[in-house]
Amino acid sequence: MKRLSLLILSAMALAACGDKPQTLGTPAKDAAPYQGTGSAFVAGGWKPGDKTSWEQHLKARQLNSQNDYSKMN
C-alpha cells in the first residue's frame, strides 16, 4: 500500500514538471479602434474605418449614457 501511494505521489510530482510555457510567440499588431473588428454587430450609423464617425459616437455615448451628472439634471 505504501509503495502504491509513493508511486502515485511520484507520478503526480513528475506530471507537474511537464507543463509547457504559455506564451503567445509573436505579438499581434493592434489596429486602430475605429477600423472595426469585421463583425456585423456594430452601432447604427457607424461604418468601420470612419474615424470622425467613431469619435462622434464616443462623444455621444459619453454625454448621453455615461455621464451621471447629465442624467440627474
What does this molecule look like?
This protein has 73 residues and is mostly helical. It is 47% helix and 0% strand. The chain contains 3 helices and no strands. The protein has helices spanning 2-16, 51-64, 68-72. The mean pLDDT is 79.
Low-confidence stretches: none
β-strand amount = under 5%
Helical run tally: 3
Helix content: 40-55%
Structural class: mainly alpha
Computed Rg:
27 Å
Tell me, rounded to a whole number, the average pLDDT: 79
Largest sheet: none
Question: Which sequence of SSEs, written as H and E, runs from N to C?
Answer: HHH
Question: Which helices and strands appear, and what pairs or packs with what?
Answer:
Elements: H1 2-16, H2 51-64, H3 68-72
At a glance:
The chain is built from 3 helices and no strands.
Key attributes of the depicted protein:
single chain; 73 residues; mainly alpha; 3 helices
